[in-house]
Amino acid sequence: MVDDQDTKVAARLKNKIFFERDDIDFTFQWLLSFMHCGGVSQGELFKLARQIDPNSITSYKNEFEKEAIKVEATAEDSLKRGHSFSAGEAFIRAHSYYRAAFYGTFPHEPDFVRFHQKSVECFRKALDAKSGQIPHEWVEVEYKGYKFPGCFLKAEHSDVPKPTILFHNGGETHKEDTYFLGGQAAIDRGYNALIIDLPWDVCVRFYEPEATAKNFPKEELHNVYRATTDFLLARPDVDAARLVVSGMSYGGAKTMVHASCDDRFAAAVPNSPVYSMATIIERGMPSFLRGSADEAAKQTEKMPYTGQALFAGSVWSHGFDSIVEWHDAAKEALDVDPRDVKCPLLSMYSEAEHPEMKRQAVETYEKAPNKKNAIFFGTEEDGADLHCQINNLPLSYQVMFDWLDEVLDYNIQTSVKQK
């Protein structure tokens, strides 16, 4: 059987609020977190939760798709009638419901591409419909003929240089998710934000099929990360002295890599700071590393279905055949020494994290050399115990941006007064 700790790594929570199954309830709480910037409606989401048969992946996908189609239709109707703000709000919810359906879909299924395309389409329509409230540009970072798509979220409608955050995606996070998981919070506080799909991200193969982890080993990964920094620093609206790198979950590992190989950041906020992804796999998912790739695949089949889809999608996105290959590549490309992160670093982690993630978060804080480093622990008492404080993003962002404002000597109110 799959070790209990292996399934817990996929669950990432302590307390359930609706579903008995850990994997479905984590998805439910993850979607609830989108509510703080209009990504879901409370009524729609709880209605869906009541209608879903948690033991049926077909029921899960069908209910979210039906809701997505319905909400998207209302968005199109509002757009045709000239109500762009309402259309934007509905499109962003339709995006989230297509996105949730994708979460339970496997790479070999026809819906895998379709759900992704629909979620991206609705997200784009949402931001474009609300361009007056959310200044943004659809951009691409080019590297050796590859084009990596992103969205540059602007703090304001001008080219005045602003502090800017480059957000790395998590293990199942799309650039669109990162709008909810940091992008909106950034522009609310007068920061620009780049959300983007890069090598080692789950969605990049939809745009560049050959841009897999297999084809982006350590040196090439460092190069494309530095090229992304180059892209930002070439913009007139980016304050070069206030450039930040951040990321949640697997994005915390990518943040550590980027901050260790590129000295142009004024601050780094990994949540959680994983400095050895290979060790996370070894200690958090040991049963998948016993035996051959076929045996690892059979182990995965014993997981809950969203866990199976997550692992299958991760293997696909990296261009591998099994988790075993992912482990070997991660050991070569994603292991860093925390002492190589010289800029100020805020280490963020939560009570429900796997013990190895907690250990690495504390050790990163202790070993990274900057005297301005800080650490934050999300607890059950604060309602922030879920993986990456996903159940209390307002508190998480309060901690993150208050620290950044102080480290960068920046405050949106002061900045406005000085104009």
UniProtKB/TrEMBL annotation:
UniProt cross-references to InterPro entries, sorted A to Z? AB_hydrolase_fold, FrsA_esterase, Peptidase_S9_cat
Q: Name one GO biological process term.
A: proteolysis
Q: Which residues form the Peptidase S9 prolyl oligopeptidase catalytic domain?
A: 227-279
Annotated GO MF terms: serine-type peptidase activity
**What Gene3D superfamilies does the database record attribute to this sequence?**
acylaminoacyl peptidase (1.20.1440.110), alpha/beta hydrolase (3.40.50.1820)
Q: What protein am I looking at?
A: Prolyl oligopeptidase family serine peptidase
